[in-house]
Write a structure and sequence with these properties.
The protein is an alpha+beta fold. The protein is 37% helix and 19% strand. Strands 15-12-14-13-17-18-16 form a seven-stranded antiparallel β-sheet, with helices on both faces. A five-stranded antiparallel β-sheet has the order 5-6-10-8-9. Helix 8 crosses helix 10, helix 8 packs antiparallel against helix 13 and helix 9 crosses helix 12. Bound molecules: flavin-adenine dinucleotide (FAD), D-malate and zinc ion (ZN).
C-alpha cells in the first residue's frame, strides 16, 4: 500500500493530497452524519489526465477509489468504508469553466465546478442553467450528474440527465472516454454517457460535462399557496399547467409540520400567513403577476386553494425560498429520520398519500410523517420520525419495518424507492429487494464489464 500512496502523491503533486486526520475529517462523514469512513489518503487531481493516472495506479494495485464531489449526497455514496484502505478522490481542484458557447446554448465545465458557479457563469453569458437545489453552493456538477440530481426546476427542465449533452469519464482502467460532444442530435451508436449519469461513481469518474443552457426565463413570480390536503395539490398543479402551460417552473409541496420545523430551527424563518394551514405549495412561474393571480384565482374558485401570497419583490421571494431551502437543515437539526425519497406517477399521488396516511397510522401511530418535496414531479421526501424514546436497536428494527411497508406501497403504485438521491449505501439492500431481477442482472453485468476488478466505489448501489 505504501508504494501506491507514494505513487499517487507523485501524480497529484504536493498540493493535491491530504492525509492529516483533521483535514480529512470533513470528507469522511456524510452530510447527515449517518455514515462515517476512513481513508489512508485523499487525492485531489488537477486535471483529467491526473485522474486517469490515479485510477490506473489504483486499478493496477487492486485498491478501491471513492469519488467525492461536494459531499452533500444523502445516501452515503461519497464516503469510504470503515476499512481504511479506500482512496478518496476529490474533484474539488477541477473547477474550470472550459467554454461557454452562447450561440449553441451549451457550456463545457470541469466536474469539480460548484453548481452555483455554473449557474453564475451561464448568467454572465445571458443564458440560464436551470439545475437548482438547496446544496447548490457546495455540490459539484460531477456529483449532480453521478446522482442524476433533480431539485427544484425539474417540472420544466428535467433532471441533470436531460441537461447533459456530453461527458468526459475516466474508466476503471484509467482510459479517458471523451464524449464531450455539444450536440442535441447524435444517434451514432449507443448513447454511452447515459450509463454514467446516475451511476454514483461505480462505473467511472466523471471529469467534465457539456451542459445544455436555456434563454433567460425572464420575469419570475414566486407564490406560497395554502391547500387543504396534499392530494388536492395535484389538482392545483393540473389547473396551473392548463392555464400557464410550461411556465410553471417549481411546484413544491410542504406540510405544516415540516415548515414548523423550519420555523423552530432556522433563525427568522416565518411563513407569510396569519393562520396555520395543513399544507403549502411553493410555486415559481415565468409569467407576470397578473397571469399568476388569475391562474390562482381560478384555482380558488375550484376549491383547493385556501390562501395565497405572491411575493411583491425579490426580498419577499427570497424569504419564501428560504423556507423551502432550509428544510434539510431544519430536519438535520431536529434529529434522525427515516429518509424515503420516493416517486410515483403524478396521477397516483393523491391515492398514494391517502393510503400512506392510513398505513403509517396502522404501523405506528406515534410515528411522525415529515413530507415535502417535488410533488409536481411525482417525487416526495416521504420521511418518517420514529418516537424519540426508542433505543438504537428498536429504532433499527422498527425503521426496517416502516421503510419496507412504505416501499411496498410505493412499488404497488408503480413507483421508485429512489427518485433523485440515488442508492449509495443507504438503499443498497433495498434496491436488491425491490429492484427488477432482469434490470439488476444487467446492472451487475455492466459493472463487471466496466470495472472487472471492482475498484470503483464498491459497496455502493449494487
Ligand atoms: P457527493 O455527495 O460528493 O457524491 C454523490 C455521489 O456521486 C457519490 O456516490 C459519489 O461517489 C459520486 N460522485 C461525486 N462526484 C463524482 C464524479 N465526478 N464522478 C463520479 N462519481 C461522482 N438532491 C437532489 O437531487 N435534489 C434536491 O433538491 C437536493 N437538495 C439538497 C439540499 C441540501 C441542503 C442537501 C445537503 C442535499 C440536497 N440534495 C438534493 C442531495 C445532493 O445535494 C445531491 O445528491 C447532489 O447531486 C450531490 O452532489 P455532490 O457534489 O455533493 O456529490
Ligand atoms: C430537498 O428536496 O430539499 C432535498 O432533496 C433534500 C432532502 O431531501 O433533504
Ligand atoms: Zn429533493
Amino acid at each position: 500500500m505504501q508504494a501506491l500512496l507514494d505513487e499517487l502523491k507523485k501524480i497529484v503533486g504536493p498540493r493535491g493530497w491530504v492525509d492529516d486526520e483533521a483535514d480529512l475529517e470533513p470528507h469522511l462523514t456524510e452530510w447527515r452524519g449517518v455514515y462515517e469512513g476512513k481513508t489512508p489518503l485523499l487525492v485531489a487531481p488537477a486535471s483529467s489526465n491526473e485522474v486517469a493516472a490515479v485510477v490506473r495506479a489504483c486499478n493496477a494495485a487492486g485498491v478501491s477509489v471513492v469519488p467525492q464531489g461536494g459531499n452533500t449526497g444523502m445516501c452515503g455514496g461519497a464516503v469510504p468504508d470503515a476499512s481504511g484502505t479506500q482512496i478518496l478522490l476529490s474533484l474539488h481542484r477541477m473547477k474550470r469553466i472550459r467554454e461557454v458557447d452562447a450561440a449553441n446554448f451549451s457550456m463545457t465545465v470541469d466536474a469539480g465546478c460548484v453548481l452555483a458557479d455554473i449557474q453564475a457563469a451561464a448568467r454572465v453569458a445571458d443564458r440560464y442553467f436551470p439545475l437548482s437545489l438547496g446544496a447548490e453552493g457546495t455540490c459539484q456538477i460531477g456529483g449532480n450528474l453521478a446522482t442524476d440530481a433533480g431539485g427544484l426546476n425539474v417540472l420544466r427542465y428535467g433532471t441533470a440527465r436531460s441537461l447533459t449533452l456530453g461527458l468526459e469519464v475516466v474508466l476503471a482502467d484509467g482510459t479517458v472516454l471523451s464524449s464531450l460532444r455539444a450536440l442535441r442530435k447524435d444517434t451514432a451508436g449507443y448513447d454511452l454517457k447515459q450509463l454514467f449519469i446516475g451511476s454514483e461513481g461505480t462505473l467511472g469518474i466523471i471529469t467534465a460535462a457539456c451542459l445544455r443552457l436555456f434563454p433567460d426565463p425572464g420575469e419570475l413570480q414566486t407564490a406560497m399557496v395554502a391547500v387543504r390536503t396534499a392530494g388536492e395539490s395535484v389538482g392545483l398543479l393540473a389547473s396551473l399547467k392548463e392555464q400557464l402551460s410550461d411556465q410553471v417552473e417549481t411546484f413544491e409541496l410542504v406540510s405544516d409540520y415540516v415548515f414548523g420545523l423550519v420555523e423552530k430551527h432556522i433563525p427568522d424563518a416565518r411563513l407569510p400567513f396569519e393562520q396555520r394551514f395543513p399544507w403549502y405549495v411553493l410555486i415559481e412561474a415565468a409569467c407576470s403577476v397578473d397571469e399568476l393571480e388569475e391562474a390562482l384565482g381560478h384555482a380558488m374558485e375550484d376549491g383547493p386553494v385556501l390562501d395565497a401570497v405572491i411575493a411583491k419583490n425579490t426580498a419577499e421571494s427570497a424569504r419564501l425560498w428560504r423556507m423551502r431551502e432550509s428544510i434539510s437543515e431544519a430536519e438535520r437539526q431536529d434529529g434522525k429520520a427515516l429518509k424515503h425519497d420516493i416517486s410515483v406517477p403524478v396521477s397516483a399521488m393523491p391515492a398514494f398519500l391517502e393510503k400512506g396516511d392510513a398505513l403509517l397510522e396502522a404501523l405506528n401511530p406515534h410515528a411522525r410523517l415529515v413530507a415535502f418535496g417535488h410533488v409536481g414531479d411525482g417525487n416526495l421526501h416521504y420521511n418518517v420520525v420514529l418516537p424519540r424514546e426508542m433505543d438504537a436497536n428498536e429504532w433499527v428494527e422498527e425503521g426496517k419495518r416502516v421503510t419496507g411497508a412504505i416501499y411496498d406501497l410505493v412499488t404497488g403504485f408503480g413507483g421508485s424507492i429512489s427518485a433523485e438521491h440515488g442508492i449509495g449505501q443507504l438503499k443498497r439492500e433495498w434496491l436488491a429487494e425491490y429492484g427488477n431481477d432482469v434490470e439488476l442482472g444487467l446492472m451487475r453485468k455492466l459493472k463487471k464489464t466496466l470495472d472487472p476488478a471492482g475498484i470503483l466505489n464498491p459497496g455502493k448501489v449494487i
